[in-house]
Amino acid sequence: MEEKRNVPKLRFPGFTDPWEQRKLGELLTYEQPQPYIVESTEYSGNPGTPVLTAGQRFILGYTDEEYGIKIASEDSPVVIFDDFTTSSHFVEFPFKVKSSAMKLLSPRDKEDDFRFIFHTLGKINYTPQGHERHWISKFSKFSVPVPGKIEQEKIGSLFQKLDSLITLHQRKLDHAKELKKGLLQKMFPKEGASVPELRFPGFTDPWEQRRLGEIATVTMGQSPNGAFYTDNPSDIILVQGNADLKDGWVCPRVWTTQITKTANAGDLIMSVRAPVGAVGKTAFDVVLGRGVAGIAGDEFLYQALQKKAQDGYWTVVSAGSTFDSISGGDLKDTPIPVPSSSAERAKIGEQLRKLDSLITLHQRQLDHIKELKKGLLQQMFV
């Protein structure tokens, strides 16, 4: 039987040699983070020096401290490695850190491609056991497959481009979300006001404060008997809660043959049990489980309910219940500011709907590139 060669499934043309095994400790050197620990955790907004963690949040905030700054750049990057969770981040800008629970890694041989080594580090299949430090005792001793320096550079360059694309689309997504957040605040009246800060030309009349139950039919859900649940798409879609909503729409995952309470295609669906306030639309006739309510509303009302969630309204209303939930009475009594003109109502709904579509587009593009990167990591590394 032919011995399995130490090569990846996908390679750049011209490379055929097997990869060699190297220990991470031979490839990377480490620095302790103590000189760069921030003194005050009362972070300021940007601009300032970023305060980093190797965990999921990455940037905790910014500090005005002008000393003890770790200098990193595109020409001299650093990898911060969480000594307990083993997560890591590639850093190309000056920073400070929150704690000593990390190592600052850099390449021993400047001819090695650091970004390639970083992705190799991220591919190690290891689950931390217990609360112990891992770099010196374990990770530095791990043996990893490494190609020649030219192939390293080509792989590293490809993933740098992918990472840049991911960063670009993440920024576009974040910008669109912030724009939507700002418009929700400006296109609906503030508390106590009768007109919004931002309006379409030609509309000057004051808005009215109405109860949700006065302007829309609200149907509280009632779960069917579990014996009637199915996985047959020919049956009726059952919406039970937030898990059935994705990107602002009902995403079918459970069906039923027992009809209890229903909502029609085009209606709004809102979660009324933890978490309260998530809202979406349905393109299908559905059965409503006890975790949701159906609301016969338009695009304007959908956006108005989103603003309620953004303002934290549902958290306040549901705070008095033993279980995070809202009653049908409380939901129907929800105050909704409404313009007197149906034309203004339609324009607001359409403007915010277009922005939602843009957010969805950026999210899908971002997810696509992340999936592409994930696939290439599997194919281009041993």
Write up what this structure looks like:
- The protein is of the alpha+beta class and 382 residues long.
- The chain folds into three domains: 21-145, DNA methylase specificity domains (Adenine-n6-DNA-methyltransferase TaqI, Chain A, domain 2, Alpha-Beta Complex), CATH 3.90.220; 147-205 and 339-382, Helix Hairpins; 208-337, Alpha-Beta Complex (Adenine-n6-DNA-methyltransferase TaqI, Chain A, domain 2).
- Helices cover 31% and strands 20% of the residues.
- It contains eight helices and 22 strands.
- The chain has helices at 24-27, 114-122, 149-186, 212-215, 299-310, 313-318, 328-332, 342-380; strands spanning 20-23, 28-31, 49-52, 59-63, 78-82, 88-91, 96-97, 102-107, 143-146, 208-211, 218-220, 229-230, 236-239, 245-246, 249-250, 255-256, 261-263, 268-271, 279-281, 286-288, 292-295, 335-338.
- Helix 2 (114-122) crosses helix 3 (149-186), helix 3 packs antiparallel against helix 8 (342-380) and helix 5 crosses helix 8.
- The two termini are 20 Å apart.
- It comes from Adlercreutzia caecimuris B7.
- Belongs to the type-I restriction system S methylase family.
- Residues 17-174, 205-370 form the Type I restriction modification DNA specificity domain.
- It holds the Pfam family Methylase_S.
Structural class: alpha+beta
Number of strands: 22
Alpha-carbon distance between the two ends: 20 Å
Low-confidence stretches: none
What key attributes describe this structure?
382 residues, alpha+beta, Adenine-n6-DNA-methyltransferase TaqI, Chain A, domain 2, Helix Hairpins, 3 domains, five-stranded mixed sheet, four-stranded antiparallel sheet, 22 strands, 20% strand, elongated
